[in-house]
Amino acid sequence: MSIFLIFLAGILFLAGILFIKPRAKQDKTWKTVIIWTLYVIFFVIACMGVSFVYINASVGHVKATSTAIFLFGGISLILAVVLARVLGFIGTKKKDESLQA
Amino acid sequence: MSVNNKEKGSQQEFSVSRRGFLKTGVAAAAMGVMGAIAAPSKIASAASPALTYQPAKGQWSKLRPEANYGGASVHYVENNDQWLGTTKLVGKIIQTDEKDAGFSLALAGKLGDKAKAGFLSTVFRHPTVLPFADAIGAISAPSMLTGEPNPNKLQIPDPEQMSQHIKDFAYYLNMDEVGIGNMPDYAYYGSNMAPPLGAYLVHAVPMDTPYGKAPITDKLPYVICMSASMHLETWLASTGYDGISNAQSERCYHASANAAVIMANYIRQLGYHARAHHFGNYELLIPPVLIACGMGELTRTGDTAAHPRIGFRHKSSAVTTDLPLVPDKPIDFGMQDFCRVCKKCADNCPAQAITYDDDPLPHNGYLRWNTDSNKCAAFRCSNDEGVNCGRCVKVCPWNSKEDSWFHRAGLYIGSKGENASRMLKSIDDMFGYGTEEVTKYKWWLEWPDLYKYDVNATLKAFSATASAVPPGV
Question: C-alpha distances in angstroms, B266 versus B145, B164, B261, B327?
Fold first, then answer.
């Protein structure tokens, strides 16, 4: 199971790179670096969270499992939203519409 | 391009020249040779015969080339006249007598009638206890522990490799951890009880047998210490002081006792002196021996030594010997700093026997936390909500973990000083480790009615007859 999860994580990591690559290139180099850094941090925390929750749930640590879902899930979600906003996946359409109006 | 030309072209694309084929072959062969050379020596040497079958120099052992400290950051320290590992020696250590140990005092009635009656009735208050006690009793007689060595000494390798071999033998006996040390003289009892305390604990003698003092004469220069770790899942499901608590200890006492008896006998077969020490018959104190063997540091709970990987969730036995060995160095993995800030055991001790002091205090020539071992023993004997107690074993952050990447990371953090330890303690509390009860592992049966005992009836029954009379009837 763990081997499959590691494989899946690798595939998702590469898929994520392909997904954000067209939008990652920014006018300033430091912005591009920040985007990729955010992506790596987001991915590492999300994977750590999945692993942590999976192991604790299988052992039966109820409090550890629920706390980890909120902790790792929360951090991952925040980072994902920030990343999506920076990359323009969310929050840009409205702006365009208002400009047109 | 015609069809024939296409076929011809594709044939050319997939063809391999003779030179290319040879190059690939040479490269593959070279990689194979390099792989064989670089493969671990344990594979290469496994087929070697007899005394040429040796572990590599500098390894922990052949079966475990590196010591497994479970992710903790471990430094080696020294034993000298001022330190035993990380325990500071502040004066002359007076050897203690076995009759002054907590359970001995309970047996003598010095911890109150309830504790004495509880001690006497322990093995009858949960049906898992007596089977282990009987099995330990069967290997507690002096004839099982010591004897004359084989007069024809067998050929053995040099001390370093012999040490590795002895460790492998311990792992072969299914021990979880093993270490070798110089035997500190003060770790021997000043005198043994005759019959020894263990004989009463395992009901090898009638409970009303009077005991005397027996001097310790069988002193040998080296000590091999072996630990069997208690069943983690059972602790996860237990309160720490219910019916299975005593069996948790007894199972490991039994396993480590078997290993000690066999190890000592094996060494005698090699032609060297060896004496097994286990729960049923000790001539030494296990905690200083564990420290001397590089298997732990003293903890807040008093005279218990925690290993970096399994904490003090283990029971240990020892073999003293004159077999030429190379002692392991004592270790420092920051347990003193961790215990200074954690205090989780003190918070959870049902007997409130564990101190909240920040620092260890002088006690019989060394520094240790001033935990009240008599209070602990009295509670363990007289606990009538279960049998005995191991709540501190269950809750300690070093003890209560399965093997996983984040717990190994946690042990690394916990071994990095007070601030890191404080952080680990907070994380441990936040995730609820130690204090939870994971009921899916509760496999054993409980008979709460058996926990209660009638103090007067028990004392009367045992003062009148031998050991086989159940209490409270």
Answer: 11, 15, 9, 19
